[in-house]
Automatic annotation (TrEMBL):
Protein name: EGF-like domain-containing protein
Coiled-coil positions: none
The entry's keywords: Disulfide bond, EGF-like domain, Membrane, Signal, Transmembrane, Transmembrane helix
Residue ranges annotated for the MRH domain, each copy included: 12-142
Organism per entry: Dictyostelium firmibasis
Domain of life: Eukaryota
Chain ranges passing through the membrane: 712-733
Span of domain EGF-like: 258-291, 514-548
Disulfide bonds: C262-C272, C281-C290, C538-C547
InterPro entries: EGF, EGF-like_comC, Ig_E-set, MRH_dom
Length: 745
């Protein structure tokens, strides 16, 4: 009879052997074929064989087969001696042949072939396809005893077709699909079973679960039908799990076991094997708790007590990917790094002494080797001339006593070391100092003063500093000069340092040239003379070195007037007046309403609404006015308005604007009543006004905004807007938003 099997996977094992799996119920057929370099059409029996002609599948609970094309495990297949054994080449790869599909597979009855044994014939059809015929006594069977409750006989293939609730040759097994189980410890507890239990969910209240000889109680199905929980008593090791429905149907699972907890925390270097209760370490860890770094330390290159580079020799290949920390005797060994062969771990240690333990850590993993490191002491290359010196084992240098010096303590120490090298040198053979110039004493500790301070009677020498302290009447580094009285009141005279007598300049006299004559005797009685300085102190209204000048008030505000020094009276120019010519006159006609005279500069100072020499030119300007609809409303007027007064009015056409709001110097807002057409806009503030021609417009459906362009336009043309200032004809500024533009002069 003809049987149909479905393809469940296609994969390459990396050796140019391609595999197809055909699955039907408990039987699985594995068809292997390889990339044979022969051209299509040149088939022979040898070319069709690929590797071992027969594959033998035995019971193996860990074998999984891909089902379907979605890459997910859909069921687990156990192979037994009753499985089908066959292997053959099916076709060449798709890049040699045009298509990558099998032509036909026929399964035929042969009563002489016992059980699962099968024979295969193949015939080449056309160029690239093989026709396969499989013979076995399995294909001769009629339906087994199919239970009428859960199975029916398939007359086409001779096997039972089970309903969704059952599976198996005789449809006598519950259709349970278990993917994994989380079991309790050996004291018992909750069992969580994961898988697909949708086929038995409707009968869940009748399902019983046994683990070994024990009943797993309180069975609960989750609504998702992917999980079952129950509670089992104490047990140990692997046990068979059995599902039963009380009506003779059951299903078994061999993967359940009681967990055996590890006595130690196995992390982070390993995991607990809960089937036997011992830690299983990763490559980088060792020990019953997997807390020991998996490395070997065979030897250590020591360093001196001053510290330095340490080289740890051994095998660090299992931990080369970890960040390692090294401590020697509790001291951090910095910058640890491995060589390329992972046989040397190098780091830098600080000073220390004695025998130390070495500890290497990475997170919670550690390795310790006691007494593996010892600091080395230095030895001196010289004898250190005992009893005058001894060797410092911490740096390898001689330590000399107070009487000797040198790298071997071979020289006699001079007093005070000759007060350092800048003052003298020590004769190590005699222990006496040879002093440099300016220094003296057994230890060159004294500084000589120049000329010995011109002794006697002129000064004393400070031999610590080499500086003379001169007596009165003497000066100079060596007290070699004789001082003059009052130092001749320099620069009023010159001192003869040899005799100490002053030679006074003109206008000065006295033994110290301390008396000064004043010019013109200060024009007495206009001033008095200070004989110490020779400077006149003039009375009020007089000045000059000799108080010979009569002063004018405010110095006539030069250059606005000239002073008569004989009389003290100012003569002012045409634009200034006052006793001191301090008043600047403004041009005639400075506006009193919009300006004021600044007497400091003689110019009119205008308010914010006017300009010009006399503050009579208006700066008012209208640039634009927002349109409203025929019902009127609020309009915004842009231009320049300075600081408006309380007399400000706005007219649009013949209508006065109400509710006027001054936003700033360039923006006004007001409310206008209903109307239509185009109108002039006029602002009036006291005696100032400005009219913009045809600037405002009533609109019905859309807002229109007119803008003033360029400068003021004389005359009116339809569609144009002109601005007219009612004061002056000078230049004015158009104010646009955030920008002032000079329009014309």
């Amino acid at each position: 009879m003809l049987l149909s099997f479905r393809i469940t996977s296609l994969a390459s094992n990396g050796s140019n052997i391609y595999t197809e799996f055909f699955f039907y119920d408990y039987m699985l057929f594995k068809l292997d074929y390889c990339n044979n370099p022969r051209n299509c059409g040149s088939f022979n029996d040898d070319a069709l064989l690929c590797g071992i002609p027969v594959k033998n599948y035995t019971a193996d609970p860990d074998v999984r087969v891909w089902m379907g094309l979605d890459g997910t495990y859909s069921r687990k297949v156990n192979y037994s001696a009753s499985g089908v054994k066959l292997s053959y080449v099916s076709y060449f790869p798709y890049y040699i042949c045009e298509f990558g599909v099998l032509s036909t597979i026929q399964y035929k009855c042969d009563p002489s072939i016992n059980g699962a044994n099968a024979t295969v014939n193949h015939n080449l059809i056309g160029t690239c396809f093989i026709e396969l015929t499989i013979y076995s006594s399995y294909f001769c069977q009629t339906c087994p005893n199919c239970p009428t409750t859960h199975g029916t006989c398939n007359q086409m293939n001779g096997w039972c077709d089970c309903d969704a609730y059952t599976k198996g040759i005789y449809c006598d097994q519950l259709n349970v699909k278990i993917s994994s189980i989380v079991g309790p410890t050996n004291i018992g507890g909750i069992v969580t079973i994961f898988g697909d239990f949708s086929n038995i969910y409707t009968n869940r209240n009748s399902i019983k679960i046994n683990i070994g000889t024990l009943s797993c109680n309180s069975v609960y199905f989750t609504p998702s039908t992917s999980q079952i929980t129950c509670i089992v008593g104490a047990g140990q090791s692997f046990q068979k799990m059995t599902f039963s429905d009380g009506n003779g149907l059951s299903s078994t699972y061999d993967g359940f076991y009681y967990k055996v907890l590890c006595s130690n925390d196995c992390t982070p270097g390993g995991r607990c094997n809960d089937t036997i209760g011992t830690c299983v370490c990763n490559d980088e860890a060792l020990g019953i708790d997997c807390k020991t770094l998996n490395l070997q330390l065979t030897s250590v290159n020591q360093t001196f007590v001053s510290g330095g580079q340490v080289f740890l020799n051994g095998d660090f290949s299992k931990v080369n990917h970890l960040a390692l920390n090294v401590e020697i005797g509790g001291q951090q060994c910095i910058d640890p790094k491995l060589n390329s062969l992972f046989t040397i771990l190098q780091c830098k240690i600080g000073a220390g002494e004695g025998i130390k333990n070495i500890t290497i850590t990475s997170g919670k993993l550690s390795f310790t080797k006691d007494g593996a490191f010892q600091y080395q002491y230095y030895t001196c290359t010289n004898s250190c001339s005992p009893p005058h010196g001894s060797c410092n084992i911490y740096n390898g240098e001689c330590v000399c006593d107070n009487e000797t010096f040198g790298n071997n303590c071979q020289f006699i120490q001079c007093p005070l070391n000759c007060s350092t090298a800048s003052r003298g040198t020590c004769d190590g053979n005699t222990g006496k100092c040879i002093c440099n110039n300016k220094y003296t004493g057994d230890a060159c500790q004294f500084i000589q003063c120049p000329l010995n301070c011109s002794t006697p009677l002129r000064g004393t020498c400070n031999d610590n500093t080499g500086i003379c302290t001169c007596d009165n009447k003497y000066s100079g580094d060596a007290c070699q000069f004789t001082l003059c009285p009052l130092n001749c009141s320099a620069p009023h005279g010159n001192c003869d340092l040899n005799t100490g007598i002053c030679s006074c300049n003109n206008k000065y006299s006295g033994i110290g040239c301390e008396i000064s004559e004043c010019p013109l005797n200060c024009s007495t009685p206009h001033g008095t003379c200070d004989v110490n300085t020779g400077v006149c102190s003039c009375n009020n209204k007089y000045s000059g070195n000799g108080c010979e000048i009569s002063e004018c008030p405010l110095n006539c505000s030069t250059p606005h007037g000239t002073c008569n020094v004989n009389t003290g009276i100012c003569t002012c120019d045409n634009k200034h007046s006052g006793n001191g010519c301090e008043i600047t006159e403004c041009p005639v006609g400075c506006s009193t309403k919009h300006g004021s005279c600044d007497s400091k500069v003689g110019l009119c100072k205008c308010d914010t609404q006017t300009k010009g020499l006399l503050c009579k030119e208006s700066r008012l300007l209208i640039e634009s006015a927002d349109s409203t609809n025929s019902n009127g409303g609020t309009t915004t007027i842009i231009g320049y308005f300075g600081t408006p007064t309380s007399l400000l009015t706005i007219k649009i056409g013949d209508s006065n604007c109400t509710n006027i709001k001054v936003i700033n110097e360039t923006t006004l807002m007001c409310d206008i009543g209903e109307g239509d057409g185009i109108h002039n806009v006029t602002i009036i503030d006291d005696d100032l006004s400005y009219t913009a021609i045809n600037l405002f417009k009533y609109v019905n459906h859309k807002k229109e905004i007119s803008n003033i362009s360029g400068g003021a336009i004389a005359g009116i043309t339809i569609g144009c807007v002109a601005g007219i200032s009612l004061l002056g004809a000078g230049g004015y500024y158009q104010y646009r938003r955030n920008k002032k533009v000079k329009l014309f002069i």
